[in-house]
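no rush on this but wanted to send it before i forget. what follows is a protein written twice so to speak, once as letters and once as structure tokens for the fold. mainly i need to know what kind of three dimensional shape the backbone takes. thanks a lot i owe you, the record is right below.
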Amino acid sequence: MTTKHTALVLGATGIIGRNLITHLDTRPDWTVKAVARGAPDFATRAEVRSLDLLSPDSFAGAAEWLKDVTHVFFAAYQERPDAAELSRVNVALLRNTVEALEKHAPGFRHVSFIQGGKAYGAQFGLYKTPAKETDPRHFPPNFYYDQEDYLRDASKGRRWTWTALRPDMMMGLAVGNPMNLGNLIGVYASLCKALRVPLRFPSTPRAYSILANVTDATVLAKAMEWAALNEACAGEIFNITNGDVFRWSQVFPRIADAFGIECADPQPFSLTEAMKDKAPVWEALTQRHGLHPHGLKKLANWAFGDFIFHVENDAFFDVNKARRFGFQEMHLDSTQAMVALMRQLQAEKLIPA
């Protein structure tokens, strides 16, 4: 007899939550409940509800809805300008969730939560590669560390366990996520085509040739389910990527070819500055091609692109630990996956075909 599980997905409309829900929707042994600020813009059988994760009273009002939850998938995040405040707020989001489930969900068994390259210091533009889960922490603050320490302490002697997953740069179908590499590249290439200019890597030749890796959201979704259901993963941290490495110099010509445009030599410039006057161009493309009217600001975060594309040191993870523990889904060709994602974005009317 198949064991039934009830997932609670927090951050349900982001790139991680959306793709996890889409994955769990295909699994007959899962019932999915999701927390999001607004209604999802994708088809799902999940029960979606809005909760204030910073308010214990909001959770208390949802006690009946939460009572069947067995597994938490925590991908919620709130931005703050100050690092200490960022940590305080995001630990509170997690703590309020866990404490509510301890109180209201007798079958609560596991928390899967997301970290990322910032656990290694990726935000500084340089870290030891390949990054391993056993690498020492950088000098604090870092809200990933504080969330992890909270779970380590709070789970002692309890019936529930936790697992941390560390994807690198995320790519996948989602709108409104500030760090979605696929949307960024797709919108940039679409604008190059519309403006009749070649696609250029917007940074230095050195950055163009670094070794990097990415994480497809579909791979991460499978990893989140795997970690949640395997007792050996309790209290562990796993790097999760597509399983390969690449250079941007290999990717950009393939992207240009997919859009039917030339790929020219790299040239350093600021996407943030260059895109300041491009909203009317995108609006015209939206009307001409019948795209969803999201607007440039919702589709792509150019500051994120400026940071990612200006990293001049290798940036990739060692994923052998997850493989040793039994996760065997990290075998994508990232360049092919990026091209396939461009086609998906076109099919979904997010960028012009």
Summary: The chain has a mean pLDDT of 96. Strands lie at 5-10, 30-35, 47-49, 71-74, 110-114, 161-167, 169-171, 214-216, 236-240. The first strand starts at residue 5 and ends at 10. The two ends are 46 Å apart (CA to CA).
